[in-house]
Amino acid sequence: MPASDSKKYFVSSPAYEVVPAFEVIGRIPAMTLMSNNLIPGSNMYVETGWILGMPDPNPHILEHVHDYDEIVIHLGTDPNDPEDLGGEIEFMLDGQPLTINKSSSIFVPKGMKHGPLTWKRFTKPHLELTVMIGAGSLAEADPGGHQEKMGSERERD
Asked: Which fold has domain 14-156?
Protein backbone atom coordinates (compact mmCIF):
# COMPACT_ATOMS: atom_id res chain seq x y z
CA MET A 1 0.00 0.00 0.00
CA PRO A 2 1.51 3.37 -0.96
CA ALA A 3 2.32 5.83 1.79
CA SER A 4 -0.08 8.75 2.11
CA ASP A 5 0.56 12.29 3.21
CA SER A 6 -1.30 12.00 6.51
CA LYS A 7 -0.46 15.59 7.45
CA LYS A 8 -3.10 16.81 5.02
CA TYR A 9 -5.71 15.37 7.42
CA PHE A 10 -4.32 17.15 10.49
CA VAL A 11 -5.53 20.54 11.72
CA SER A 12 -2.68 21.76 13.90
CA SER A 13 -4.17 25.16 14.67
CA PRO A 14 -7.83 26.21 14.78
CA ALA A 15 -9.30 28.87 12.53
CA TYR A 16 -11.36 31.77 13.84
CA GLU A 17 -13.99 31.98 11.08
CA VAL A 18 -17.01 32.68 13.24
CA VAL A 19 -17.52 36.39 13.69
CA PRO A 20 -20.52 36.86 15.99
CA ALA A 21 -23.23 39.23 14.80
CA PHE A 22 -23.17 40.71 18.32
CA GLU A 23 -21.05 40.49 21.46
CA VAL A 24 -21.92 37.80 23.98
CA ILE A 25 -20.51 38.51 27.43
CA GLY A 26 -19.18 35.34 29.07
CA ARG A 27 -18.09 33.66 25.82
CA ILE A 28 -15.00 33.85 23.71
CA PRO A 29 -15.29 33.58 19.92
CA ALA A 30 -15.58 30.02 18.67
CA MET A 31 -12.64 28.15 17.19
CA THR A 32 -13.21 26.20 13.98
CA LEU A 33 -11.53 22.81 14.33
CA MET A 34 -12.67 21.22 11.06
CA SER A 35 -14.10 22.55 7.80
CA ASN A 36 -13.61 22.20 4.08
CA ASN A 37 -11.36 25.27 4.30
CA LEU A 38 -9.09 23.43 6.74
CA ILE A 39 -9.37 19.90 5.31
CA PRO A 40 -10.81 19.95 1.76
CA GLY A 41 -13.47 17.28 1.34
CA SER A 42 -14.09 16.76 5.06
CA ASN A 43 -17.70 17.93 4.66
CA MET A 44 -17.97 18.65 8.37
CA TYR A 45 -17.96 21.81 10.35
CA VAL A 46 -16.68 21.46 13.91
CA GLU A 47 -16.40 24.40 16.24
CA THR A 48 -15.91 24.88 19.95
CA GLY A 49 -16.07 27.81 22.31
CA TRP A 50 -15.45 28.49 25.97
CA ILE A 51 -18.23 29.62 28.28
CA LEU A 52 -16.36 31.72 30.85
CA GLY A 53 -19.31 33.29 32.66
CA MET A 54 -23.08 33.59 32.51
CA PRO A 55 -23.78 34.47 28.86
CA ASP A 56 -25.40 37.84 28.19
CA PRO A 57 -27.67 38.07 26.27
CA ASN A 58 -29.22 34.88 27.52
CA PRO A 59 -30.40 33.14 25.46
CA HIS A 60 -28.07 34.02 22.61
CA ILE A 61 -28.76 30.84 20.65
CA LEU A 62 -32.37 30.95 19.50
CA GLU A 63 -34.67 28.30 18.04
CA HIS A 64 -33.46 27.22 14.61
CA VAL A 65 -33.40 24.32 12.20
CA HIS A 66 -30.99 23.22 9.50
CA ASP A 67 -30.63 20.65 6.75
CA TYR A 68 -27.85 18.56 8.26
CA ASP A 69 -27.43 16.35 11.32
CA GLU A 70 -25.69 17.96 14.28
CA ILE A 71 -24.08 16.77 17.49
CA VAL A 72 -23.97 19.31 20.32
CA ILE A 73 -21.54 18.56 23.14
CA HIS A 74 -21.16 20.35 26.47
CA LEU A 75 -18.03 19.47 28.46
CA GLY A 76 -17.12 20.30 32.02
CA THR A 77 -13.51 21.30 32.63
CA ASP A 78 -12.95 20.24 36.24
CA PRO A 79 -10.31 17.46 36.15
CA ASN A 80 -11.45 16.30 39.60
CA ASP A 81 -15.08 15.98 38.46
CA PRO A 82 -15.17 15.84 34.64
CA GLU A 83 -18.87 14.98 34.54
CA ASP A 84 -19.85 18.23 36.29
CA LEU A 85 -20.69 20.74 33.58
CA GLY A 86 -20.13 23.80 35.74
CA GLY A 87 -23.57 25.17 34.97
CA GLU A 88 -27.09 24.33 33.97
CA ILE A 89 -28.53 24.85 30.49
CA GLU A 90 -32.09 24.43 29.30
CA PHE A 91 -31.82 23.10 25.74
CA MET A 92 -35.08 22.96 23.81
CA LEU A 93 -35.18 20.01 21.41
CA ASP A 94 -38.26 19.75 19.19
CA GLY A 95 -40.17 21.89 21.69
CA GLN A 96 -39.21 19.75 24.68
CA PRO A 97 -36.85 21.04 27.39
CA LEU A 98 -33.70 19.11 28.24
CA THR A 99 -31.70 20.03 31.34
CA ILE A 100 -27.95 19.88 30.85
CA ASN A 101 -25.84 19.98 34.02
CA LYS A 102 -23.29 17.26 33.25
CA SER A 103 -20.86 16.66 30.41
CA SER A 104 -23.17 15.36 27.69
CA SER A 105 -24.02 15.20 24.02
CA ILE A 106 -27.20 15.65 22.00
CA PHE A 107 -27.86 14.33 18.50
CA VAL A 108 -30.06 16.74 16.54
CA PRO A 109 -31.43 15.11 13.37
CA LYS A 110 -31.65 17.10 10.15
CA GLY A 111 -34.83 19.21 10.11
CA MET A 112 -35.48 19.11 13.89
CA LYS A 113 -36.11 22.43 15.62
CA HIS A 114 -33.78 23.11 18.52
CA GLY A 115 -33.07 26.06 20.74
CA PRO A 116 -33.20 28.31 22.46
CA LEU A 117 -30.35 27.39 24.79
CA THR A 118 -30.81 29.22 28.07
CA TRP A 119 -28.18 29.17 30.79
CA LYS A 120 -29.96 28.83 34.15
CA ARG A 121 -26.81 28.66 36.27
CA PHE A 122 -23.06 29.13 35.84
CA THR A 123 -20.45 27.94 38.37
CA LYS A 124 -17.34 27.04 36.31
CA PRO A 125 -16.01 27.49 32.79
CA HIS A 126 -17.12 24.83 30.34
CA LEU A 127 -16.91 24.06 26.63
CA GLU A 128 -19.60 23.94 23.98
CA LEU A 129 -18.68 21.92 20.88
CA THR A 130 -20.77 21.38 17.77
CA VAL A 131 -20.23 18.84 15.01
CA MET A 132 -22.22 19.69 11.88
CA ILE A 133 -22.24 16.61 9.67
CA GLY A 134 -22.44 17.52 5.99
CA ALA A 135 -21.95 21.26 6.51
CA GLY A 136 -18.41 21.75 5.31
CA SER A 137 -18.27 25.53 5.46
CA LEU A 138 -19.29 28.36 7.75
CA ALA A 139 -21.92 29.45 5.23
CA GLU A 140 -23.48 25.96 5.26
CA ALA A 141 -23.17 25.66 9.05
CA ASP A 142 -24.99 28.90 9.97
CA PRO A 143 -27.94 27.35 11.77
CA GLY A 144 -30.89 29.02 10.13
CA GLY A 145 -29.29 32.46 10.28
CA HIS A 146 -29.81 32.57 14.06
CA GLN A 147 -26.90 34.97 14.54
CA GLU A 148 -28.40 37.36 12.00
CA LYS A 149 -31.85 37.04 13.61
CA MET A 150 -30.48 37.71 17.08
CA GLY A 151 -28.43 40.64 15.78
CA SER A 152 -31.48 42.22 14.14
CA GLU A 153 -33.56 41.70 17.30
CA ARG A 154 -30.89 43.48 19.35
CA GLU A 155 -30.87 46.38 16.85
CA ARG A 156 -34.62 46.91 17.45
CA ASP A 157 -34.13 47.19 21.22
From this structure: Jelly Rolls (2.60.120)
